[in-house]
Amino acid sequence: MKMLKRTAFVAVMLLAAAFTSCNNDDDNSAPAKPSIYARLGGTTMVNDPDNPGQMIEQGRLSYRKVVNTTVGLIVADIQAGASGNLSAHFAPVLAEVGAGNTTNLAILVDNLTDFFSFNTGGTNAVNTYTGLNMVDAHNPATNPRMGVKSTNADYTKFVGYVGAAAQQNGVAANTELYTDIVAVLESLRAPIVQQ
Amino acid sequence: MKRKKVKVILGSLFGTFLLLFIILVAHIATAKPVENAHIQVSRIDFEQPLDSALSTTVTQQLRAIPGVKSDVIVKNNVVVYFHDNTVANSQQVFDQLMQKGTYNAQRFVVPAELANAQACPVIKKDSWSYRFSSFVQGIFN
């Protein structure tokens, strides 16, 4: 009788072990991919190179540098009367900057940094986007500082500028991060292209 | 009776005004200040394209000028940089850079056809609304 009990106990333990090891509750799925913001440095606080004594989230700083470089590359391409660059779109802002008023350039850079940071995982309050929605922001009727409506070709050129800016700031074109950033930009094509 | 009505109307008007004023102050106070509010983008066009070594030198020289920010973009013969225009304006930065080396370059000025592009009136810094907003933000930030 004692022997039977022992055998039954061992059998139960073996069965339990077998079922436990064979169940498919184990989480074998790949860990969730970190957000773009996290991969750009995330919420790690670093010194702000443009504001000595102030700290900034690394993710936000990365985006701000890409935004600044994008603006810089567009400005570098501006030629009077030349087609093929985006000067017409930024003309009102550039005219203000030329006249010494930089308010709207600062707002443009800030808004773009907020928008990309918040929508790619940087959801802290510092990145809260308070600008217009993408349709209104790119319609001269609702945003007078948008010089003209964008065509598909204009937007493709803009994506190229952002890509070049990302590469200049250390995001190589053959990386998954670069592909993911371009995918975000492509997801915005429909509301931005309005002619 | 008539006097009481007037009192009620005046009281209501005052109450409404006070409420709207408080909402305005709260709105200004809680608004996130613009980062680098005085940032200006400026450009210098060199006679010849900048090679790698010269590009590095000019970038370092620009960054050493007070007011110039860290992002300096070099493309062919063009250098674009950001600066705080309350510290140094475009001409001052250009003049200081020219003193640091023998460069054949000129400061880029927005072409007239772009400068004349229509834009909405911008806020005047000597206006009451600008001063009031700055005052309230100064208290809370």
From TrEMBL, chain A:
Entry-linked InterPro entries: Globin/Proto
Protein name per the record: Group 1 truncated hemoglobin
Coiled coil ranges: none
Signal sequence coordinates: 1-24
Keyword Hydrolase on entry: no
Keywords noted in UniProt: Signal
Lineage of producing organism: Bacteria, Pseudomonadati, Bacteroidota, Flavobacteriia, Flavobacteriales
Residue ranges of the TM segments: none
GO molecular function terms noted in the UniProt entry: heme binding; oxygen binding
